[in-house]
Design goal:
The chain is an alpha+beta fold. It is built from four helices and seven strands.
Length: 158
């Protein structure tokens, strides 16, 4: 599995591989199905181009396995965003490998904390289990989030 950062052109809006573009609407719809309108926190391709976002994809040859991103909140704190694994590659260690890579990158960049928002629904249980295994603990809302019944907040000191 190769994990690749987006080239700098992504922030200029020039990067749109067809397979990633085709997978994101499905992801957004799946999250929207779990949460009422207005409570989904998934980033779309436009949001992934913002300069405060660093986005990675995981590949097996030409097959997209998944993706993940961080959003810089301040000089010491990043938010984990858009952790997704293609359904055909669930339970194969893809998410764990991506998360380990992203944690290492954040630490190497000098960040001291990583936080995330995920869902409390059963469909998010594998993600919450992974985050706990990787050292995240539940916390209160951070950044611009507020308390809502469709969010679980977690954080980790790097």
């Amino acid at each position: 599995m190769a994990i690749c950062a987006l080239p700098p052109a992504v922030n200029a809006g020039a990067w749109q591989p067809a397979d990633l573009h085709e997978n994101f609407p499905t992801t957004t719809l799946a999250i929207g199905f779990c949460n009422p309108i207005g409570f989904g926190e998934a980033l779309d391709l436009k949001a992934l181009r913002k300069p405060e976002i660093t986005f990675w994809t995981a590949w097996d040859g030409l097959v997209l396995l998944g993706c993940g991103a961080i959003k810089r909140l301040d000089a010491q704190h990043v938010e984990l965003k858009s952790m997704r694994t293609a359904s055909a590659h669930l339970r194969k260690g893809v998410a764990r490998s991506k998360l380990a890579f992203i944690l290492d990158h954040a630490l190497a960049q000098g960040f001291q904390r990583m936080s995330l928002e995920t869902g409390p629904q059963a469909g998010f249980a594998p993600a919450r289990t992974l985050y706990t295994y990787m050292g995240f603990v539940e916390c209160g809302p951070f950044a611009d989030y507020g308390l809502d019944p469709y969010s679980v907040f977690m954080t980790k000191v790097l």
